[in-house]
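Handoff note, outgoing to incoming analyst
You'll be picking up this chain. Sequence as last confirmed:
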Amino acid sequence: MSAVEAPARPQPAIRDQLADHLVTPQNAALIVIDYQPSQFAAIRSIDQELLTKNIVSTVKVAQLFGLPIVHSTVNVSTGLQEPTVQPLAELLSGYPPIDRTTINAWEDPNIIAAVRATGRRKLVMAALWTEMCLAFPTLDALREGFEIYPVTDAVGGTSAEAHRAALERIVQAGAQPVTWVSLAGELQRDWARQETVAGIVEVVLNERLLKE
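Most recent structure output, in case you need it:
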């Protein structure tokens, strides 16, 4: 070896992507619940335009890493509610919504079956509103042994207090809050994973953080 050659750097061992205690593309699924016009209309804890951007970015990140996605709406088939808002509905066009009548998605057997069919025990959860459609299924899923990761800046409540209280409630029960940007970093984890680097730069930096 010449005097100017640096010794080869040892390559770190790849952690088990299924057993990893952090979220990975192989151990997590995304659950998207009730991003419908009437739900948005009552949001007071976060700007509605920002909320839309954040849930769109969350879904784009999940799709980039190939996470299974379960998409649900409430009361569309009964005619009482409108479908998922654009542009989120367009992003989720490959994931037909499971419509239900229950406020708590975890009380709908079709939702539970779809979640279990993913085979994932870590559930990244996003729902409107925080105090009901996020909190209730989170509490139920935690009791069944799932790990729940609410995306706190991609959800909203009917007041700042309702949002805060709901997040405190589910965190005390064991939920692990994330933001859409932290989720992206947790899934990427290593810049040597070249297949998703360009996508992460586009979704996180070019479309959002360096633009706004």
